[in-house]
Amino acid sequence: MTAQTLYLWFPGTAAEALTFYRDVFGGELALHTYAEFDRTDGPADAIAHGALSGSVSLYGTDAVAGEETLRMSGVSIALLGTADGATLTRWFHALSDGGIVIDPLQRRSWGAHDGRVVDRHGVSWLIGYEEEATDQTS
């Protein structure tokens, strides 16, 4: 069975972005160039297809001339309860490095923690978790 996975079109930064996400989330990263796929519609060293598989999975490519590139408006990738609180907190801070914190990761009045960040590649993330019995941090 397969799961939904986002496929992101980058403006020539797919290798950098997908490597960043691998460093944040862990997992296995495969990068395939236009040359490997016998594509001539872009630079030979551009990424024709990149795949990060692991606890967070993403696909990415370098857009060719005329294709629209990643722009996120009114949407975020939600990582709500996808890992333990310590892991999600670490991911939030890693994604914040070079990005913009929209709403700090914090404890909410209903007891859960969440926050929003736009990372250095323009991807918007909503990260949150329910408070664990031993978790008393804010």
Overall spatial form = elongated
Round the mean pLDDT to the nearest integer and report it.
93
**Major sheet summary line:** 4 strands, mixed
Rg over alpha carbons? 17 Å
Helix count equals 2
- Strand percentage lies at 35-45%
Unreliable segments of 5+ consecutive residues: none
Compute the separation of the termini in Å.
Answer: 37 Å
CATH architecture of the largest domain: 2-Layer Sandwich
> Helix content range of the residues, please?
10-25%
Query: Structural class of the secondary structure composition?
Result: alpha/beta
Counting structural domains, the number is 2
Number of strands: 8
Strand order of the largest sheet: 1-4-3-2
Pattern of helices and strands: EHEEEEHEEE
Remind me, CATH topology of the largest domain? Signal recognition particle alu RNA binding heterodimer, srp9/1
CATH class of the largest domain: Alpha Beta
Domain PhnB-like: 5-127
Protein name: VOC family protein
Pfam families: 3-dmu-9_3-mt
Organism: Microbacterium oryzae
